[in-house]
Amino acid sequence: MSVSDPVADMLTKIRNASMAKFEKVDITPSKLKLEIIKILKNEGYIKNFKKMTQEDQDVIRVFLKYDDRQQPVIHGIQKISTPGRRVYSGYRKMPRVLNGYGTVIVSTSSGVTTGRKAAEKRVGGELICSIW
């Protein structure tokens, strides 16, 4: 079965695994997905990730993060741009998630980055997803 939006599929897998309190989730790799996962790691939403080969197929294993009460660190994750409706933003109007407590991930001309860093670099781009 072919997936029309692989990034949305990845975000759904992470959201579902987090709500089900799984320790880890496996995702099929791509460069964009790997960059998004690196941002999730740097922002503290996941513990770690590892690229590995499982049964002659490459996967990215994402280790999910929970607080001391075993509640998921990821409270919500939402895709903004879809294949049918692309959403772009300039650096002046970069959206803020939960008044700065969340993170928006943006695909810019200088690579995939957070909305905060894109605004600091004064570059806009396509809004991929928001996470809080």
Can you walk me through this structure?
The chain is of the alpha+beta class and 132 residues long. It is 25% helix and 33% strand. The chain is built from three helices and eight strands. The protein has helices spanning 6-19, 31-42, 115-121, and strands at 24-27, 46-54, 57-64, 77-79, 88-89, 103-108, 111-114, 125-131. Strands 4, 5, 6, 7 and 8 form a five-stranded antiparallel β-sheet that branches. It has a three-stranded antiparallel β-sheet with strand order 1-3-2. It is globular and about 45 Å long. The protein starts with 5 loop residues before the first helix and ends with a strand.
Quick structural overview:
Helices cover about 25% and strands about 35% of the residues.
Radius of gyration: 15 Å
CATH fold group: Ribosomal Protein S8, Chain: A, domain 1
Topology order in helix (H) and strand (E) letters = HEHEEEEEEHE
- Can you count the beta strands? 8
Main pleated sheet = 5 strands, antiparallel
CATH architecture: 2-Layer Sandwich
The overall number of domains is: 1
Strand content: 25-35%
Question: How would you describe the shape?
Answer: globular
In angstroms, what separates the terminal alpha carbons? 30 Å
| Poorly predicted parts | none
Tell me roughly what share of residues is in helical segments. 25-40%
Mean pLDDT reading: 93
Question: What structural category characterises the helix and strand content?
Answer: alpha+beta
Q: Indicate the CATH class.
A: Alpha Beta
**With helices defined by DSSP (H or I, 4 residues minimum), what is the helix count?**
3
